[in-house]
Amino acid sequence: MFVFLGTGLIAAAVRSIFLCDCWSGPSIRALLMRYLLLVIFVVILIDVHSIPLLLRLGITEALRAAMSALIALGIASIVISQISRVVGVQWTEQK
Q1: pLDDT by residue (tens digit) across 22-42?
Q2: Residue 44 clears pLDDT 80, i.e. is over it
Q3: How many CB atoms lie within 10 A of CB 94?
Q4: Distance CA 35, CA 58 (A)
Q5: Is residue 17 part of a domain?
Q6: Residue 74 lies in a domain
Q7: Domain hosting residue 66, numbered range
Q8: Confidence check: pLDDT of 58 > 80
């Protein structure tokens, strides 16, 4: 938690640092980085928390991996469709 808060403070104070530069601002690159990292984080959290539940239900490892892949695909599809709308609007406004 403190790592994220510290990174946010650094990004707000200094925008010329390479790692902070690609995360902040209204650019399409920064928008994609922020959303795709969030998707990866959410998918990992869902996967980690679903393992004990699925093991208690007696679901095999292969089936759990398949379910995890389908959940990740579903979440990624939803987020990518939303991002494409936002990027499309920004692209149209820039032209």
Answers
A1: 666 777 777 788 888 888 888
A2: yes
A3: 7
A4: 34
A5: no
A6: yes
A7: 26-94
A8: yes
Gap between the Cα atoms of 52 and 58, Å rounded: 10
Taking the C-alpha atoms of residue 56 and residue 65, their distance in angstroms, rounded to an integer, is 15
Q: Is residue 21 part of a domain?
A: no
Give the chain's domain count.
1
Helices 28-56 and 61-94 pack at an angle, to 10 degrees, of 160
> Is the pTM value of this prediction over 0.90?
no
d(CA 70, CA 92): 33
- Position of tokens 């984080």? 41
Per DSSP, the three-state class of 10 is: helix
Three-state SS at 15? coil
Q: Is the dihedral of CA 33, 36, 42, 47 positive or negative?
A: negative
